[in-house]
Amino acid sequence: MKILWFANTPCEAEEKLTGKPVTGGGWLYALSQEMKKNPQVELHIAFYWGVPMEPFLYSGIYYHPVLRSGNGSKIGRYIYRLRSQFSDCYDAVEIPRLLDVVSSTNPDVIHIHGSEENFGLIAEHIDSRKICMSVQGILGPYKNKYFSGIPKEVVEKNSPFIKRLLLDDSIASFRRFCRKTSREKRIYRKIDNIIGRTKWDEMCSLALNPERKYYTCNEILRSDFFKKEWAPTSNEKFKIVSTISFGLWKGVEVIFQAAKILEEAGFNFEWNVIGITANDEKALYSEKMTSFNRDSLNVKFLGRMDSSRLIEQMMSSNLFVQVSRIENSPNTLCEAMLLGMPIIASYVGGTASMMKEGIEGNMYQEGEPYVLAGLIMDCEKNYAKYVEMGKNARAHALKRHNPQNVAQELKRIYESICLSNERVNDMRV
After folding, report:
1. Count of domains in the chain?
2. In angstroms, what CA-CA distances link 17 with 27, 30, 117, 281?
3. Is residue 230 a contact partner of residue 35, using CB atoms and an 8 Å limit?
4. What is the C-alpha to C-alpha distance for residues 130 and 418, in angstroms, rounded to an integer?
5. What is the pTM of this model?
6. Distance from C-alpha of 282 to C-alpha of 415, rounded to nearest angstrom
7. Other CB atoms closer than 10 Å to residue 425's CB: what's the count?
8. Among candidates 119, 213, 177, which has minimal Cα distance to 326?
9. Do both 365 and 408 map to the same domain?
10. Angstrom distance (rounded) from CA 297 to CA 273
11. Are 130 and 421 in contact (CB under 8 A)?
12. Is residue 310 domain-shared with residue 277, that is, in the same domain?
């Protein structure tokens, strides 16, 4: 069975392309490693790359670099940012390149990972019955939450001039996001087979395409997280950890608001934020709207970390807190569950499908800093209960993210799609 992936990452080929070993890798990297073990699967992965490059075989997987327009230089990237806000011209250039990969590989199943890129537009040009698409995030609901925590007027007033000039600020990103949202609707209308994990993406995908067929398949997490198990630790201060990535909706302002409440209550804590620095624009905007000092001794921004350093930081913490305004099935939450940490998470998107409230962790309504602060205090007061919930979370996550099980789930989906297509073809004969 020949499978063609369209993905946002070159997975293991990053080693060949950059000359640097992949440290930890992402969930898609982990999935590719598991899938290539199956002798019945011939895996091909197509991804965008900044310079022309011929297809190649590396470590048992066939890779197909697709030229990404405008990524070859700083000026090219600026022009790309400019034109991608106001025009779909790059899609028109790149779709034929994607179709060339389909033509050259002639796969049994095409698997598109995520609707954020233009990969799914190939469904407008070929038989879409052999295409399936995994839900990563869905841009439409995210667009509705884009400025839900940090208002647009705060962003516009405080956006750094140089970023605005380079079209690299949050307002420019939002304009590009809106165009991608419109493109995503086109993609969902054309793709019949959707793979998801949560009730949220099941219902959102139904709303976008009432005729779609829905499959469930979980994700494989980074292998490093399977090797460690969290245990209670003694800290001078109650140590909280959160991971923040791209997007104004990630809830930095909620951290500031909750931290201010905890400070005023005399709670002795340290809140470490991984993924961004104190100079990140989300921290800047959050400081402006909350009057909380982002250089507070109680809140520390540690920047990006590889998986080993991240795990070390999580293992030394008392509590993991997710503060996002919108999520589907956040890997950071799943990783905390896999380690077996005490967890508090915002009740948004698909998180309720990932973690059982009151059994594997506690949840709060997103954007409610007083409830969040209260739950953090409750965790400290009733720590044994939260530790036990962490153990339950780990048991659940170990089953859900088991690499062999996930690979088998996905293979069964591919086989189901192939079988359906064979039946249709037999009826036509």
Report:
1. 2
2. 19, 18, 21, 31
3. no
4. 7
5. 0.93
6. 44
7. 10
8. 177
9. no
10. 12
11. yes
12. yes
* Residue 63 burial (C-beta neighbours within 10 Å; 0-12, 13-18, 19+): buried
How far is it, in rounded angstroms, from Cα 234 to Cα 241? 15
CA–CA dist 326, 250 (Å, integer): 7
On whether both 95 and 139 belong to a single domain, the answer is yes
CA dist 152 and 150 (Å) reads 7
| CATH number of the CATH domain containing 128 | 3.40.50.2000
Amino acid present at 94: E
Give the phi and the psi of residue 187 in degrees, each rounded to 5. Answer: -65, -45
Same domain for 208 and 238, yes or no, is: no
What is the extent of the structural domain holding 214? 2-220+403-428
DSSP string across 242-310: EE--SSGGG-HHHHHHHHHHHHHTT--EEEEEESS-TTSHHHHHHHHHH---TT-TTEEEEE---HHHH
- One pLDDT digit (tens) per residue for the chain, 429 residues: 999 999 999 999 998 998 887 755 588 999 999 999 999 999 999 999 988 999 999 999 999 999 987 666 677 777 777 777 777 778 989 999 999 999 999 999 999 999 999 999 999 999 999 999 999 999 999 999 999 999 999 999 998 888 888 888 899 999 999 999 999 999 999 999 999 999 999 999 999 999 999 999 999 998 899 999 999 999 999 999 999 988 899 999 999 999 999 999 999 999 999 999 999 999 999 999 999 998 888 999 999 998 999 999 999 999 999 999 999 999 999 999 999 999 999 999 999 999 999 999 999 999 999 999 999 999 999 999 999 999 999 999 999 999 999 999 999 999 999 998 876 665 554
Same domain for 275 and 174: no
Q: Which residue has the tokens 């890798």?
A: 25
Task: Give the neighbor-by-neighbor strand order of the sheet with 2-6.
Answer: 56-58, 61-67, 42-49, 2-6, 109-113, 131-134, 193-196, 213-216
For residue 200, what are its two tokens? 């949220």
